[in-house]
Amino acid sequence: CTSAQRIIAELIPRYALYCPTALEAAAKVAINMYDCNLLIMLRGEDTDGIAFQTAQACVFGLVDICNAASTVAPSSSVIGGICSAVFLNVLTFFISTFEGKNIYEASDLELEKIEDSKDFFAKLKQAMEENDTSVSEKLFFFRALSLIRIFVYCPRRVLSACFELLDSIDIGVQKGGFYFLRQVTSLIDAQDSELHLDKLDNRPTLTTDSVLANTNCNHLAEDELKTTNEHLPDKSLSASSSLMEK
């Protein structure tokens, strides 16, 4: 029953933290429910929108499950293995759903806002829900938003899972790991570029006094440069002589 799955999708992540040994199973259940409800939508049978709501809840539930796995103290090797399996399964799931598409261009996310503001995630979610786009586009955005949020809050865990993919003997699995690394680096590069542009936009306006001050500084710098250049040949010759003697 889709209505029952809708309720389960909300409850599983909420109580997963209280049972660390069930975290891996909780992640698998959320992934399986997402796949089942996605098929319902693809067949055009989601007339009441419950399948979409369930799939959406499963995606966001994976964020909560990963957060729970990252906060669990590794009291034993078994618990540590379960938490590692959670991140590996969740990362593999997200990678498979993106089908090689660019996450950053589709989501237009900002790492700093996701990291600094707890409300930013909820605002983005609400904005996309109200946006007049297709269901598939909304789900793609929610998946991208969720994966990036997991990476921001649990970078070591996610990268560790990524390295496991890269270490696999399966070529397809390896490609998934490389795909994720490309997405992460492109996202970080884009953020660095935007930060650089912001700094350029915030440069102080040039005035007559500042121009004169910069001119005086430039003259001083030129004098120092001339003095340095005059001694460069002597330094180069002495360095060459010492090398030849050795």
UniProtKB/TrEMBL annotation:
Top-level taxon: Eukaryota
Protein name: Uncharacterized protein
One MF annotation (Gene Ontology) recorded for this entry: ubiquitin binding
